[in-house]
Amino acid sequence: MSRKKIALIGGGQIGGVLTQLIAQRELGDVVLFDVVEDMPQGKTLDIAEASRIDSFDINLKGANSYSEIAGADLVIITAGLPRKPGMSRDDLLTTNAEIMKKVAEGVKANAPDAIVIIVSNPLDAMVTLFQKVSGFSAEKVFGQAGVLDSSRFSTFIAWELGVSVKDVNAMVLGGHGDTMVPLVRYANVNGIPVMEMLERKYNDKAKAKEVMSAMVERTKMAGGEVVKLLKTGSAFYSPASASIAMAEAILKDEKRLMPVCAYLNGEFGVDGYYVGVPAVLGEGGVEKVVELTLDEEEQKAMDVSVNAVKGLVADLQRLNYI
Length: 322
Ligand code: APR
Known about the structure:
Blueprint: E1 5-9, H1 13-25, E2 29-33, H2 39-48, H3 51-54, E3 60-63, E4 74-77, H4 93-110, E5 115-118, H5 123-134, E6 141-143, H6 146-161, E7 168-169, E8 172-173, E9 181-182, E10 188-189, E11 192-193, H7 194-202, H8 205-220, H9 222-230, H10 237-251, E12 256-265, E13 271-282, E14 285-289, H11 296-318
Parallel strand pairs: 1-2, 1-4, 2-3, 4-5, 5-6
Antiparallel strand pairs: 7-10, 8-9, 10-11, 12-13, 13-14
Helix pairs in contact: 1-2, 1-10, 4-5, 5-11, 6-8, 7-8
The structure holds adenosine-5-diphosphoribose.
Adenosine-5-diphosphoribose binds near residues 14, 15 and 80.
């Protein structure tokens, strides 16, 4: 098997952790691209100098020129500004749209066969913009949001129930904004519904509902909670881990079912938009979108979330980005 080439566009907080995780797992050779001179070269040098200690042997290169990403198999994009306290992801739209347009042109010209994972916010709009500008086929361009949002939701459930997070399965669908949709009814601990466990814990249905609502709300606002504490940026360790899980699924053709910001062709009643849905990830990118039955309340929440994504895409159109 030939060695994979992974291009990371954006060498900031997430880009740095991505580089380290890829190195430690020897997933492929890395080119870390950023517009800031010398910084990606400094980060890759720093990480490479830990190779003897961590026993990894891959090539790490920092770059300020797109020609360095030539022939990349996989591209992960984190270029763009992060939030400041008090900002929503949507407040980043115009600033990051400018950046994403340039990134899409650079990737299209130099790595036309790559599979592309986008992490920059506002996520659903940035994925849409990249796909439209690059013209890459939709199953090869998708976004990371749901893997992290679901991990946040699972973490809160594990803490509440006092069980290992390894046994919690919970998914968050919809757009990656304040209207995201944590799927309560499907959340389980090794098959046991979380709601049933909460009802037994409190011996009170109303209290169980209240506790779940608080976890759902915390999940929706989890990014903002971290921003508020960090004060100088947004979450970066967990978004990097989430992106690596997706990258691994693709590079190792694992066919993992994950929540992915994927292009919909009528699935979930949505046509022509990127939204977070369960999907199978493998060497072809998004190989299948997996539908599931939503009850009335879940469908309503999904509709609200999809409408929020549509609003952002309409803004991109109004501003002539797409
Ligand atoms: N091309 C490439 N990189 C760029 C460009 C560009 N045109 N413009 C800015 N960058 C780089 C910045 O120089 C910076 O190093 O993008 C990097 C972003 O890094 P951080 O500011 O540290 O942000 P980070 O925490 O990594 O988050 C990146 O992911 O989760 C989202 O909301 C978050 O949009 C943000 C993105």
